Amino acid sequence: MTHLKITRGHRRQGFTMVELLVVIGLILFLMSISIAALNSALGLARQRATQATILKVHGLMQQRVDAFNRAMDRTNLEPNIAKLVKDLGVSTRRTQDDKVYQILARKQVFQTRFPQNFSEHNVTLSQPNAAKHRRDTESAALLYWLLTSSEVFGVAPVDESEFSSNEVRDTDGDGLLEFVDGWGRPLRFYRWPTQLFRPGDSSTPAGVNGTSSPIELTKIKRDYAQVIWQGLPAITSNGNGLDPLNHDPDDPTGQLMRFVHSVPTNQTVAAMTMLQNRFHTPDTYHAFLIMSVGPDGVSGLLEPCDPIPDAPFLLSTTPSLVATPGQGRLAAPSSYAAVADHPINDNLSNRKR
Hints:
Helix content: 25-40%
Number of helices: 7
Distance between the termini: 90 Å
């Protein structure tokens, strides 16, 4: 019998170095794609969580603002006006200024009921741990206090159980809870963000106003505002080119600017500075703004914790005023960088859908 002899080749002992490097490269490539997709999904989830929290807080705030407006329509503000006139040092109250005082008294009440920094609130909060307290958390802490501990003209406080640990946190460990975004950072609350619309010009340091830098009604700058405030009313197209953002919702007929122009010339700057520092920029649109600093953690706006200046604003005498350190509470830009490169681009707000 004839036997066939089959010769077998050498059996491979393993992968070559090249093959191993190719496999490792493919694994690393797939891992990088997976990590990028995971980070993208996580970032999107954080944005959606932030938007949900902001819109929830916005709805609760709007209830209180609506209740305030209804109450003010039937409230006698004369006691508030008398105190305001005294605070301003007005020696003789002119009848023609009554509308102005009515508007300012209403703003002053709104200010006390909707504080955004600790220097404004007139209630007792739990004393924060001063060693740990960060001032950039103040507006978020006051926003939480406003919704959970303050009754606003018939609108009862919200039960604390309505908010989850993802929405509320003590980020600085000072003992006060704050509303937070999806990145765990405190939200910002701006009551009258008028300097978002009239930030001044590049020659003026951001947020600074006073006798060394008299306040002027510069042109509305929509390029900054529209980044975090969508759906702004357009300039009229009927030929007159009027901008509705040049009107204060509380003062549609421009009484405050008439008041500024009616005082003696040597008090014009004092009157304008008083309106800006104690309240906000005259003849400028405003509505409350709740904002997250976004993924980069930088808002691009000065902090709302800036206090109201304590400098006297006596309109009955020639004023002696000092420049104020900043108007962050009016949402002043922290710089005048080109809008495309400005940190406000990734901010999320109740005015941005």
